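stuck on whats below:

***
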Amino acid sequence: MFSKMINLIEEEKYNLIKQKVVLIVGIGGVGGYSVETLVRSGIEKLILIDYDTFELSNINRQLYANINTINKKKIEVAKENILQINPNAKIITIDKKLNKDNINILDKYKIDYIIDACDDIEVKKELILKSIKNKIKIISSMGTGNKLNPTLFEISDIRKTEYDPIAKKIRKFVKDNHIKEKIMVVSSKEKPKKASSINSISYVPSVVGIYLTYYVINDIIK
């Protein structure tokens, strides 16, 4: 199944990938593509967190959204798709909206990487604190709304971000809490288009999801 990748990175590194546990928070436009590419990159142990169901308006940008998955739980649809790709995958699903009061449910799991693909700024802050406390590597998606140019996204420490309203709030949080650790994010240098609501196009969140996967896999295999 993974012979083409093993030829590229060598079997020893592929075996390292198989051993890692990745938590993905948010299985939407960004998180769905991250889940898909993690599994196709050999990750077999995943923890998926999402409380939402698919809606018609998700179809334009969310990988697992289609006419047949409307009103279905995102984590259950994602799990079903993962097992169709790799039946050996071990999937834990958590049907919850994370918040400050329940974030400690993560303490019961052994987690090597956190992929933050949610759109809740307070949850992003809590995940950063949890990653530091539990010594878990984290990478977080910043804003993808009202942006059109996928080539302007990059992986960087939060302190090097600009033009991103979400990143601005996280930068302030990191500064106010005197956080010294690197907090890696995927963000864009594109100024968001002015609009009365948050909108998105198919290829922007998908690119961000793939960047999140790239960071994790590249960190594993060095």
